[in-house]
Every structure is written in C-alpha cells, then in structure tokens.
Fold each of these.
Amino acid sequence: MKIVHTSDWQIGRTFSFVDDEALGALQAERLNVIQRIGTLARQEGAQHVLVAGDVYEHETPSERTLRQPMERMRQFGDIQWHLIPGNHDAHTPQGVWHRLQRDHAVPDNVSLHLQSGPVLLDSGHNAWLLPAVLQRRHTVSDLTAYMDQAPTPEGALRIGVAHGSVVGFGQGDEAQHNPIAIDRAAKAGLAYLAMGDWHGFCQINARTVYSGTPEVDRFGTGGAGGGECVVVTFDGPNAPPVLNQHRTGRFVWRKLENVVLTSRADIDALENRVRAIAADQPDTILAWLEVAGMLGVEELALYENQIERRLRSAVTCLRLSGAPQLAAGPDDLDMLGVGGPVRGAASALLEQVQAGGPEAAVAQEALQRLFLLWGEVRRATA
C-alpha cells in the first residue's frame, strides 16, 4: 500500500516583500502544486493523499480562496484526499471547515477529519487513519495521546496524522505549542506518523516524518527546505515504511549573503551567479542579495542597469539589502563639466563626504544619485 504525505499548503499566503505581479504568481503556484501532487499519486499508484494541516493560511479566507483547493482536488476523483486542521486553520466555530461543510463545497473524494478517533482508510489493506485535530491555534496538550489506546482491528495498519511540534527535537522545546511526544509512533503502535508544521522535510525517526511544504516559502542561505512531498510504501503493519521524496515545487528561493562588489567583474559574476540558480527558468527564481562594496561612477551605473533593472526583470523577485557605495574622487567631477550648478553641487557634496561626520552618509547617497541621474541624462541626449 502507498500513500502520499504532504502538509502546509497555506493557500492564500501573502508575501509582503514582493510586488503584486509576483504575489499573484506565488499564490497561484500554491494551488497548481495540488495538481502535481495528484499526478504524482496516480503515477505512484497511491490512492490516498494525507495533508497534515495548514491547508489554508488564514481562518477567514475569501469565498474563492476557500473553494479553490477543493476544486483542484475534485479533478482527481480516483484519489482520496484526507485533510486535518493545522494551527493556521484550526477547527474553530464558524471557521474554514465549518464554512466548507455548510456550503457543501467538499467533493466526495475529499475527507475532512475534524474529530479524533480511528477512521477506516483502506479496507483492502486493513488500514486505519488516526487524526489529531486542532480546535484552536495553540494547545499545550498532546492531541496524539489518545492514539495509544485507540482501538483498531487485529493486524491493522495504523497511520497517524498530526500538526505540531515534536517534543525533544531541536531547540526551544520549552516554548513549543501543540506538542507531540517524540515516541508517539512507538507508544501507539503506528506504522507511520505523518506530521505537519515544519516546512522542510525532516525525518524524526523511522516512523515519524515531516513532509515539508510542497512549495518553498522562505529564503535560506543554502536553499530553504520544502518544495517536496513524500511517497510512503507500507509492506505491513510492522515493517518500517519506505520513504521516497519527490520534488513538487516550482519556485527556487536563495539568499546570498556578504556579496561585496568592487569592479565590473564582480557585477558580472553576481548576475551570473543568480541566473545559474535556475539557468533554464530564471522566472522561477526568488533571490535575496545582501550587497555591499565600493564602485566607481561608471561601475555604479552598470550595477543599477545590470542588477537592479535587467536582473530584476528576469527573475520573479529580486530582494536587495544594502547597496554598493560610490567611490568618487575629485577627478570624477570632470565628467560634470568645468562649472555650472551641477558641478558646484557635486563638489559641495564630495567635500561633505570626505569631511565625515553624521551627515556624510546622506551626502554620499545624494552624490551617488546625482552621478546616476547625470549619467541617465547624458545617455538620453546622446
């Protein structure tokens, strides 16, 4: 028997650092990935998909956002989708799950598990699902504890599904909400405990696994976790499950730290480095660059054109922290002419920069903008 384990879809999620066009693309892909999960289930011969919480980002999504994932799952009538609430979409009165039921928006091939207790998953394999159900965003009790005594038939394949923090794993356990015992699978005789909440794949032990979110949703210096789901194969109630990770995400998120630019070669290298993240599909890249350094007048203009304009237009999101500073000296003033108000203003700003003090940074930025604007005017009239 096979299942697909996924979690943390967070349909309707917003990202404050992207523009409206990029936000629309990111939100659309969080829906499109459902189709890729369904296709994977068919290819692998898995008749059940377990979604371990946080189907939605908010407890009060719009009507369209509420129904969209249901309609994506409806397309796969041969696959049974099993959903539980998470901390973002807990089963609260008048919440998302109540609305779905009230409006008859749930397809026949989607099962909402809103009460704790064993549920027959697959009669042919004597497989039973044991869901843990969050009825508020945070709880201090372990909602999987009931699984230890939950009755199932002799020889049943017991599969738990929960959303929360495994106690004893990682740091800050004392501050964890929605705690889950690290040995719950062993105590409850589970063949597998499908976990949600952690956004990257993480195998706690042979039978306790976080699938991660199917679309990456955060930056990391080495590539954030997530962007995949897990196909789980069971050879029996006692045999260890066999896990196979499958990439489902489209977007690639990267954070590049301590990028120091001092020359044209550095600018070219930075652009090439970002494009190489996904050379054939630059529109799938979200890059966050922490930039510093000193550039001459011409190099600074090149940086603005090549990185801030050209590269930004090629990728879905280019997030910049910091910027290279202008390395200008008296000789650079000659490009502004021998006199006139622009030359005079630049000379005064340069003197202020060289004098230092609290106003030097403001003068540096003003001088940088003056040179860049002058360059734009010169190119426009050439």
Note: The chain has a mean pLDDT of 89.
Amino acid sequence: MTFFSKNSIPLLLAVPFCFMVIACESNFRDVQKMGISEFTPSGDADSINLKYTDSGRITANLVSPKMLDYATVEFPFTEFPKGIHLTLFDKNGKQTLVVADYAVSHKATNLIDLQGHVRISSQSGDLLETEQLYYDQKNEWFFTEKRFKFTSTKGVSYGEGIDFSKDFKKVNSQKISGQVQSE
C-alpha cells in the first residue's frame, strides 16, 4: 500500500515552504522598521542668524537657511542641512569665515562636522578648501584627514590631512605637496 505518489511529494514540501515564506515576510518587515530612525527634530528654524557672546563680546555669528535641533535624542545634535556661514571673531576682532554646504554640531563633544565644499578664510588672506572638516569648539581647532588645498601669501599647497588653529597661526599638515616660500 502506497500513501504518497511521486506527484504528492513536491506538494508536501511546498506547503511548509509557503508557511515559512509568510512567517519570514512578517519578520523581515519588522527588521526593516528597526533600521528606520524614528526621531524627529524638537526644534526647526528657517533663516537663522545667531550671535554667540562671551563677556559681552561677540565670538561667533552663525547664519543658515535651515536648522534642525535634535535635543531630545540619546546623543543630541543640531543639523544644518542647507549649509552654514560662520564668522569667528578673536579677541582683537579679527575674523575667520567658515562656509559649508552641510553641518552637524554634536552637543556632547562640542565638535562641528562641516561637509561639502568647505572653505575657511582668514582676514589675512589664508584660504583652506576641502570636502570635510571638523571644528573643535572648545579648543578652537580645525582638523581633517581628507584632501585639501591651502592658499596663503606664501604659496599654494595640497595635501591629505591637516589641523590648524582658527586664526591659521599654527598649522600642521600631512602628505603635503606644492610650492611654498620659506621665511
């Protein structure tokens, strides 16, 4: 006596397979949802012009068309998705201008991540151009491991990796090439 014919074996295998696919599809959708960040900004501002002061003196002026503040997430940050124009002032009133297509300020570390056509120029004519640059607000120090172009009164240099003070008085560069006049 035969319980199964040759044609019924594939059918018996297909039924459990269908149940597995249906069960996996449901789990797959749940896993996909876990990858989606489900937080929204606690603050949203258009056309901002912020002035930072210290003891009555303006230390920075930040201008941006859009600001999103994520103050209520586990690692709070402020995002500038449409770029920034940041003017930094030293104690003598000399300015350093920072322009970037995109920026994120991380509150816990006091680091600003500048991205996309980043340009920094000093009042004395120094100019640095790169695609990504970090600014340490506490130490007033810029740094990157990306390729850069540095133009000064001494010449033009190119490299990969640089760090410098906001007034360009201290500059440390890596993998540099170009023609620079020595003093």
Note: The longest strand covers residues 57-70.
Amino acid sequence: MGLEFCRFLLSNKPGAVVIATCRKPDSSHPLADLNVRHPGRLTVLQLDVNREVDVKEAAETVQTEFGKVDLIINSSAMLHPSGKGETSLKEVSAQGIISTLTTNTVGPLMMAKYFAPLLQRGSGAFGQQPPEKNKQHSGILVNMSARVGSIGDNALGGWYSYRMSKAALNMATRNLSIELSRGRSKVVCVSLHPGTVNTDLSRPYHRNVPKDKLFSTEYSVQCLMSVIDHLNVDKTGRAYAWDGSEIPW
C-alpha cells in the first residue's frame, strides 16, 4: 500500500515531492525504479517503525531538507508474526500481541510524535480548505486502520492481536485529532480502511473474499486519495472506509 501511494502521488500530483520510508532502502527495487522515473521528486529514508530512534532521525532529516510536511500516511502494518490471525483464544500468545501492537499501534504513534511539528508547518495542500481561517488546516495525518478494528462493528470475534492493535490505533487517532486541532496550525487526523486489498497481509484469506470485494492496490489507493482530498477539520478524529462512509469506533 505504501508503495502504491508513492506511485499515485508522483503520477497524479504534479510538483509533489514524496518522502518514502522503508526498513531496507538499498534492497527496495520498486522505490529505486520510481526514483529513476521521477528524478528529484522522491526521497527514500531508512525507517523501522519498531525503532523510535529511526523515527526521530527520519523526522530530523525531513526537517533539515524540507522544513515541513503536508501529508503523512502511516501504512506499515502486520497481521500477526505468524502471518495469520488467531481464530480462537487458545492461539493467543503474549509475544504475538506485543509484536503486533508494536508495529500497528506504537509505530504510527511515534510517527505522529516526531512528525506532528512538521505537519503543523504544512501548507494545507491536501484536503479541502473552507473560507474561514479558523477552520483551515496545515496538514493531514492518515493512519491506515481496518474495519475489524471497530468495536461497534465486531460481530465475528477472533483475530485478537490485529483487532486490538487497530482499535488502539483508532484511539490514538482520536486523541491526536483533539490535541492537534488546537491553535492556529490544525492537523486533520483520520483512520482509513482500505477494503480487502490484494497484498501479502490479506493473501492467506483471499479464498473467502468475493472477487468484487478484493481490491487491487491501485484501486484502493485511488479511492483512499479521493477520501483524503475531501477531508477538512470537521471530519477530523473519525474513521472512514475506502468509499468515504464513516465507520463506527
């Protein structure tokens, strides 16, 4: 998903400069290819969201080189260290929950901690800006969540680690939306659900997904960017699906 967001922004937002992060930039051949096709518009930084020092150093680099950020999309995630969700309580392990929470919840929160000052200096290039100055935003923070993280929408149970991590991420999003809406430099903070996307994370469960409900990364990102383009301060602190519908917490 993160790679597809990079592709979309570089291809559809003329003049946009994209900063991509990954754990091993030297071995990320798709990002290297994008760099060749869009010279001067893509910066790739090393960052493992499980290491706070990586997040801090990346933010310092962006501060030095760019001074601000208009949009952050936190898309790093894992289903479970085993690669599949727990279907019952007997499959739950403390280490599995800790690992999933560290990547899916703590990582995005650390990103917010160190990058929020850069978003507060943003130009408000994304989303919709109303005429009232007190309702205008400087930046947008997107946490890629999932419908299964909704407590109100949970009718099937299971997937303890993943559900818990996304529910906690949604709470972090809500908290951030309150704190970062104070003052003149407002940051819109939302959780987004991409649908069931054809990625490694969901691949073990594709056989249970109807063909018309399994999205390509291209389609999902196109839909999500449309949601982002229609965000404003009145929509902050909420969760939205790929089609723009609101998801209950």
Note: The longest strand covers residues 137-144.
